[in-house]
Amino acid sequence: MSLDAPAVQRLRLDYAKGEPLRFVSHLDMLRLWERACRRARLPIAHTQGFNPRPRIALACPLPTGVTSRAEKVDLFLTARLEPGEVMRRLHAVLPAGVEVFAVAEVALTEPALMSLSATVDYQAAVEWPGSAADLDAHLRAFLARESVVRERERKGRDAHYDLRPLVERLWIVGQREGRYILGMRLKSGPQGTGRPDEVLKALGLWESARGVERTAIVFA
Length: 220
Prior knowledge:
220 residues, 5 helices, 8-stranded mixed sheet, alpha+beta
């Protein structure tokens, strides 16, 4: 297979990232997909230039430690394949913790997934000693604040930023196994990206959190 062959097909995969891989970073997930496509003998196109790379593009990064049932990845192929055939080949080589549940063709010219993401939904299981009404009031009080200044490390230096504009919604999804399930809709894009762990810390719920899952990526 020539690395210079142009892409003739773009396939978008919907997949889940489960508990066994929740501490695998965004960059390592990209490497995982590169290895899986190679083992599945998919005709992946490559970028041009001095250091060609497989044309595999993930959606917005998933924070380390978070599971997801809403991940997407685009594969660019140099020869056309049926989506069902791609799913069959990948299922044979993917490790435990990755489950592909949909493959569909999209236009080659469509903008990059990362540039299209606008907001991201998460659900977090938390222990809360009070009632649902108390917890709801706690969330409303957070949303009523004009700013929530947090500190984040960037390039080895601590930087301050305002978390509040990055939080669009907070709500109680329900209860499960004696814990409350919180829903969060956070901004994702050039204007900034909200992190669920930072929201939980700002709410004083980080220590009682028992798992965070991404449930949807909302595209503009």
